[in-house]
Design goal:
about 325 residues; alpha/beta; Rossmann fold; 2 domains; six-stranded parallel sheet; 11 helices; 12 strands; elongated; binds beta-D-fucofuranose
Length: about 325
């Protein structure tokens, strides 16, 4: 064989070896020449869209902080969009995130109805949706799971506490949460179911304070000025922020909250537990806002094609004069 042909053969062999060392471009991305996966979807930082209700309460601030801090801790790319109290803005956010092709969408819905079209669009785009905090009436086939609280149970627990405290006799004014939200609808339902067992307990007035302290105060001021409600003996607020507003109104009317009028609520916020310890309120059932870890555990599993539990409810405490002074020291929000 001539020297020239020999050199030509050696060069071809060197080029072939060099190509083999770079790997075979026909292999799927992320797999080694042996074909076994070197990374799976779960090990890549995922891209998650989060649609928040807005910033209506201290509970919501704690919820938002939990979501943002947990995403940062896990190196998750978070596209956080606030609905700013508008369901239309939340629906627009769904379309935006679907168009961006995020890996997972987490939705905290302002209203518990009307989500089928958005969820079907996400499903058609193969983007799994996790429902956070507030439940919806869509078929569970349209989303992956629900992670939050059992609001009906929270309403029941408050109602039962009040029945026990008053020996089944109370004329109650109710300050409701955001109209159409699962939190307001289901807390109301659970509370009414609980007091229905006691003929001496009645809700004599009910109005929304939109989960906000200032509006809760305005609603209570109107109740206090209404001559038809002079017989009121208790206030049921759907969240602590509105209960704290009601307490301000009751004080300004020269009455003693927690004594002249019993104050019961939901959320377990530090300020409300403190008010109970001070004798200015009477009971609150906890509603956990720190959902970040559970939400991103589910999002990472879903992104990796793993199954997750369809419903994940938080375990929650009840605070009253028996435990508030101790509990207030541990409250994180
Ligand atoms: O009770 C209230 C917040 O959805 C459970 O929304 C949440 C509620 C909570 O504004 O404070």
């Amino acid at each position: 064989m001539s020297t020239q042909r020999l050199l030509h053969g050696v060069c071809l062999a060197v080029v072939a070896l060099a190509l083999a060392a770079c790997g075979d471009n026909t292999q799927p991305a992320g797999s080694s020449p042996t074909g076994s996966p070197t990374t799976n979807a779960a090990s890549k930082p995922i891209n998650v869209g989060f649609i928040q209700t807005g910033s209506e309460s201290a509970w919501r601030a704690a919820n938002t902080n939990s979501v943002k801090s947990e995403a940062e801790k896990r190196g998750i790319k978070l596209n956080f969009i606030s609905g700013e109290g508008s369901v239309d803005k939340q629906r627009a956010a769904m379309s935006t995130l679907i168009a961006q092709g995020v890996d997972v969408i987490i939705l905290d819905p302002l209203q518990n109805f009307g989500w089928d079209p958005s969820l079907k669009a996400a499903k058609n785009a193969n983007i799994p949706v996790i429902i956070a905090d507030r439940a919806i009436d869509s078929s569970p086939d349209l989303y992956v799971c629900f992670i939050g609280s059992n609001f009906d149970e929270e309403g029941q627990r408050v109602g039962e506490w009040l029945a026990k405290k008053t020996d089944g006799k109370a004329q109650i004014v109710e300050i409701e949460g955001q109209n159409g939200s699962a939190a307001a609808v289901d807390r109301k339902k659970g509370f009414e179911e609980a007091i229905a067992k006691y003929p001496g307990m009645k809700v004599i007035a009910s109005k929304s304070g939109e989960f906000e302290t200032a509006q809760g105060k305005q609603v209570m001021e109107a109740f206090l000025k209404n001559p038809d409600l002079k017989g009121m003996t208790a206030v049921f607020a759907h969240n602590d922020d509105m209960a704290l507003g009601a307490i301000q109104a009751i004080k300004e009317a020269g009455k003693q909250p927690g004594k002249d009028l019993l104050i019961v609520s939901v959320d377990g916020e530090k300020a409300m537990v403190q008010a109970i310890a001070n004798g200015e309120a009477n009971c609150t059932v906890e509603c956990k806002p720190l959902l970040g870890p559970a939400l991103f555990d589910a999002a990472e599993k879903v992104a990796a094609g793993q199954k997750v539990e369809a419903k994940q409810y938080s375990k929650e405490e009840l605070f009253d004069s028996s435990n508030a002074a101790q509990a207030v020291k541990e409250r994180q929000y």
